[in-house]
Amino acid sequence: MTQxxxxxxxxxxxxxxxxxxxxxxxxxxxxxxxxxxTVPEEGSMGGASRWFLHHALESLNKAxxxxxxxxxxxxKEIIPSLCxxxxxxxxxxxxxxxxxxxxxxxxxxxxxxxxxINATSSNGSLLWEPMSVLKKDGTPYKxxxxxxxxxxLKQAPPRYPVNTHHTxxxxxSVEFPDLARLxxxxxxxxxxxxxxxxxxxxxxxxxxxxxxxxxxxxxSSIDNYDEQRNIPSVEGTSLLSPYLHFGLISPNQTWYAVVxxxxxxxxxxxxxxxxxxxxxxxxxxxxxxxxxxxxxxxRENFNxxxxxxxxxxxxxxxxxxxxxxxxxxGIPIVDAGMRELYKTGYMxxxxxxxxxxxxxxxxxxxxxxxxxWFWDCLVDADxxxxxxxxxxxxxxxxxxxxxxxxxxxxxxxxxxxxxxEYVKTYCPELSNLPNKYIHxxxxxxPIILAEAGITLGEDYPHPIADLSATRKRALxxxxxxxxxx
Length: 485
Description:
This protein is of the alpha/beta class. Helix content is 46%, strand content 7%.
């Protein structure tokens, strides 16, 4: 039978995999993963993502009866070489939307066409293709609500998850004389120092693990998602973001698991928590939409006025950045979030907004410095969502929060972590403080601090920023660019 090469990328699953389903209709499948070491710096995976990828590949390889072929190098050279050695006349993959990936894949398609090899790409990552959602005048949306309600929901529904039948593999005896076949371990994705111990407690990196998280979320949390998603101490979110990024589950599987559980889209949207969760899947779509239509957003301000924003880049700001990265700012909710990030590879979404606002607005540090730190530390680091999220917080993005909306981390902590449970989990040195002072230990009387066993500056740092003064400084900085052309 004709052999069909399936190039796995950010779709590391068997179920609802359009590329694999299409290949199964052709003949025997040659499943391939290539660790592309030619990607530009902004796309090169951070440490936490590499950890997740290692275990995702192990899960996929097991599901493929250990038939996954692993290579490292330039796919523009490896894919044609594989086709030649294995006599493949068909190559299938699911699309990626990063600018460098689009360019790379276009070159590969052209090369394969010149070799009389069919190259077919499919949508395995998004509910709606970004090129198909446009305003009536043919231009892309820049605001989320009309994008989602008018551009997406008024289109045909997302495709239903496809069945992936039993795969017949190509002969394992195929040799690749010009290529070095590797093992997953050869990719050296795992960290050399053991900072990832907590990762194993939090993440079952497998296709079944993704399905289990989704099922648990639907039965236990989704009805209260609109309220509980903001409370970092409770399990109120789906925790599916890394699985969606690496494709251990598709957004289509997620969308229809929710919709079918509540007997259709109209019924689902009537339940507030469910409707809000579906709209959050829409936000993920919007991030990819912006990346596709405005592919500079990862490194450049969407709003060009911010090109002259007076970011701080002196010695003090570098020290502040280090304090922020290590969770030693002296602001408890910020420190808890940054420590959660380092220990688990994840940070609660409400807290992401709080720590982002503190960095960009209270410390006046360029949002790109935060984006890079998140990129290295998050298991769900995603070009589209990471860039769009940081520009939203900074006020420089499409449909962003206005710059003058500055989160007060004390008030945010008191509102969403009333008993201080989240802070106490990641800042245990503050555990004996009364709830009244858990989000502002500097206000606690000396006797209260002594009873809690805390000496500020020794057991826990003094705040690195005066929240009121730095808020005014941020607003003054914003005023200096408001009239810029």
